[in-house]
Amino acid sequence: MTPIQAPKGTFDILPPDAERRSILESHARRILGAAGYQRIETPAFEATELFARGVGEATDIVQKEMYTFDDGGGRSLTLRPEGTAPVCRAYVEHGMHKLPQPVKFWYQSSFFRAEAPQRGRYRQFWQIGAEAIGAAGPAADAELIVLLAELLEAMLVKGLRLRIASLGNPETRARYREQLTAYLRAHEDALSLDVRGRIDLNPLRAFDATDPGTRAVMQDAPKLLDALTPEDAEHFAEVRGLLDVAGLRYEIDPTLVRGLDYYTRTVFEFTSDALGAQSGVGGGGRYDRLIEQLGGPPTPGSGWAAGVERILLAGASPPVAPDPVDLFVALVRRGSTSATAAGDGAATRAAFLLAHEARRAGLSAQLELADRSLKGQLKQADRLGARYVAIVNDETQASLKDMAGGEQADVPIPTVIPTILRGSRLV
Ligand code: HAM
Hints:
By secondary structure, the protein is of the alpha+beta class. The chain has 2 domains: 15-168 and 228-314, BirA Bifunctional Protein, domain 2 (2-Layer Sandwich), CATH 3.30.930; 327-422, Anticodon-binding domain (Rossmann fold). The chain is built from 14 helices and 16 strands. The protein has helices at residues 15-34, 48-54, 60-64, 84-93, 138-154, 170-186, 193-197, 212-219, 230-245, 290-293, 308-314, 345-360, 374-383, 416-422; strands spanning 38-39, 45-47, 68-70, 76-79, 103-112, 124-133, 160-166, 251-252, 264-272, 280-286, 301-307, 327-331, 365-367, 388-392, 397-402, 408-412. The structure holds histidyl-adenosine monophosphate. The site of histidyl-adenosine monophosphate has 28 residues, from strand 6, strand 10, strand 11 and helix 11.
């Protein structure tokens, strides 16, 4: 029969990779926890309406990338493509606006987008994210950016670059869009066919074009940053000032485009030149209208999410040493070279109990489970780097071997754990 494989764009997390992810998670817990962010996890699927309203009907994510299905009762559900709308939904649903503000969350969860898979881009992927809800000021934005920088540094992510911009408020943005559309129409002849065809649909995309004609036109195009209201411009200036105080280097990129519609004011993105085409390691921004759009009270918010796979691809986290094994419990029955569980029941029970009690005493202990010969068991203990091997002969006696020194002594089983705990030499 043909073996079944994991679906396209998904992957297995095998033990060495799982270890690196745990390290990333512990850095996130330490760095974000120290700043008052608390863990939250939301369901893997939500009402489709949440993302249509939250992320935006016109975005690529909602238009093309969602895994949407019927729950069998006529309700449309969607595997979450991102975490901000769900966290805001939870904030509203649990009345968290009544708590002292801001409420600060972090998460490490998997997300789903029907994208064309390539290196660093998958259909199920993981993000570490942080959201500060109920704080309107620039300090919340700057704090979030600095925390993400610290996390990426802790994971030794190479070739990092931080770009920031401000999108102002939706009204300014609508006015600016009209102004940009008019400018593009006035220079239509010099634009690529592709850009020309999308002037009304998405004029901002013209900033991403690579052909020389469009690029020359875009040099002098009006920039949103120049159209901000005085309040929005002031907010952005303060965010920059705080990043300067923290000594974090950034570039102002007036053409920074994010793929989600909920942003207001600050937006930012970290890229790594170690990643190739999918260079975005993490990004986010402020979303002051989102909670209201989801039916909650007017509440400002700000946050980011970083791709776990991309952090691990671009990071240089050191190889993970396997956990040390204090005790390997080997089992030999009289008159036999192999240890079969069905054989000497009393010795098997004694060995099982010894491993169990060793673990309860705080030691790491592994019991032979593969029915190897004694020689094979000693080899396995050696592969695991076990400090001691207890070869259980019968229900009362074991030969305890110090693997580093090579000494071996016959001892009563109850003395094995105290001996290892004392770390004493055997002979
Ligand atoms: P995003 O930029 O769509 O933002 O995703 C954040 C990060 O997730 C990206 O920078 C990238 O590292 C990773 N990522 C996205 N799509 C994929 C994929 N298909 N495969 C692998 N990694 C991927 C958000 O999701 C917003 N919720 C961030 C946010 C939080 N804004 C405010 N609060």
